[in-house]
Every structure is written in C-alpha cells, then in structure tokens.
Amino acid sequence: MPYAGDLTPQQAWDLLTSDERALLVDVRTDAEWRQIGIPDATEIGGRAALVEWTTPQGLNPRFVDELAEAGLEPGDERPVVFLCRSGVRSVAAAQAATAAGFGPAYNVLRGFEGDVGPDGQRGHVGWRAEGLPWTTL
Q: Which CA distances in Å does 102 have to 65, 84, 97, 117?
C-alpha cells in the first residue's frame, strides 16, 4: 500500500488523542471549511492543519511545502492523519505525503461528511456523524 492505511473516524481520533506527535490534516477546500465546518482540535492541543489538496486552479502545487510549514519533516516518523469530505482526496494526499517521506500517513474513511445518502444529502456517516469534535470557522 502506498500509504500507512485507512482508519475509521473514531480510530483516527483515538490515534490523535493517544499520540501527542500525531497531526490531523484536513485537505478539503477553503470553501468547504467555511461552509461545512472543520474538526475541532482543541482537545488535541491544536494539532491540526488546513492544507488544500486542490485549489480552484487544480492540484495544490504547494501541498508538500505546506505540510512542511505545518511542522512535518520527511523521515520524522510523525503520524499524519488526512481527512477530506468523503475519504477520496485524503487517499491521494496520504500517498503524496508518503512519497515525500512524511508519515506514516493515514486516510480517514468516509471523511468529514461521507458520500451522498439515499436522501441526496451528505452527513449520514463520517467524522461529524460519529459525533467527533468539530466547529465552524
């Protein structure tokens, strides 16, 4: 596997609360953070970063640089947990981070709000639906 593996939202939170080196990285867009909310990292000492995987122009060309700016260093073996809307972009982010020497890098399954449900809405599964801490910007 080109990254360390997949975690359920609860497993991700358990890792973040038990390992003080672990960093949560939300790779959604600025618009998603502002409209939908973000994980609340207060309980984990603020160890979270907002680093867009994509921008309006396409893939974020500064993604790896922004991970370094968030405190990650290649080869430091610091666990990094990637979160997106439904668990797709975060796989690509975890793969890119691994290729750049960061991690172990993990993907959060079902993301912040999951795929569209039978009612045409998101939010039935994922970080928020599991009752994990979140807030608005």
A: 11, 18, 5, 34
Q: What is the pLDDT along the chain (137 residues), one digit of tens a residue?
A: 599 999 999 999 999 999 999 999 999 999 999 999 999 999 999 999 999 999 989 999 999 999 999 999 999 999 999 999 998 999 999 999 999 999 999 999 999 998 888 888 887 889 999 999 999 98
Contact 93, 70 (CB under 8 A): no
Q: Which of 71, 69, 50 is nearest to 134 (CA)?
A: 50
CA pair distance 103, 8, nearest whole angstrom: 18
**Dist. CA 45–CA 40, nearest whole Å:** 10
Residues 75-110 as b/e (b if ≥16 CB within 10 A, e otherwise) read eeebbbbbbbbbbebbbbbbbbbbebebbbbbbbbb
Separation CA 84–CA 71 (nearest Å): 20
What's the pTM? 0.95
Strand partners, 135: 38
Both structure tokens of 62: 């500064």
φ and ψ at 9, to 5 degrees?
-55, -40
